[in-house]
Amino acid sequence: MDHKGRTITGLVREIAANVPALRDIPPRQAHSTWREEVILVYCVGKGKFSEGPDFTRETQYINLQMDMYDLSGKWIGYQLGVHVSHSTISDLTGVPPSPQGAFDDPASPVPHQIVKEYTKGVWTFADGSEVYAVGPAQSHLVPFSDGSFLFMVTTGQTITNGTGRYEGCAGTKQATGTTFVPAGLIPGQFPQPGLVFDAKTIETFRIVKKQDLGPFPR
What we know:
CATH class: Mainly Beta
Structural class: mainly beta
CATH architecture: Beta Barrel
Largest sheet: 8 strands, antiparallel, barrel
Oligomer: single chain
Order of helices and strands: HEEEHEEEEE
Number of helices: 2
Mean pLDDT: 88
């Protein structure tokens, strides 16, 4: 018991009462309207490069098979996806010119990058409900000082449909993922046909369910 007469257990409960519950992450302030469902998850699993005629210098496919967790670490489902890349090593290691001009002017020019990668995926939640999405992607290789790399991927997908509680839904889904590439594998051994690697992603869903959707204006 402390000098104010409060027990340690009481203090812990007091602290816990002032910490936002993980079920409230993201907070309501992150939702534009109560009809928008915002979900934050992380995924851990494997990626596998394509083989045979589906793997060339110009084109590689990656299949992702990953478990999905909420931010408290609770397993909530899994994802399956396919990523196709037409990027060269120069594309992966190149850095776009830093943006110039005003950042507080809506008419300020924005650099246009060529899209060379695309994704599709299905995210299945523990109750069997699914979300489907497709969209562009971009990969980047970031070198470490010891010769190793981070293989980094970002995606911007449009939700096309769903099943279960997400049947007929609409929205967007974004993800950023990385895998560690040990020194000596680039160039030559990463990527290579049939290579399996560890993958980790952080993903955001913004979903509007079917019952809240209206017709598009003419």
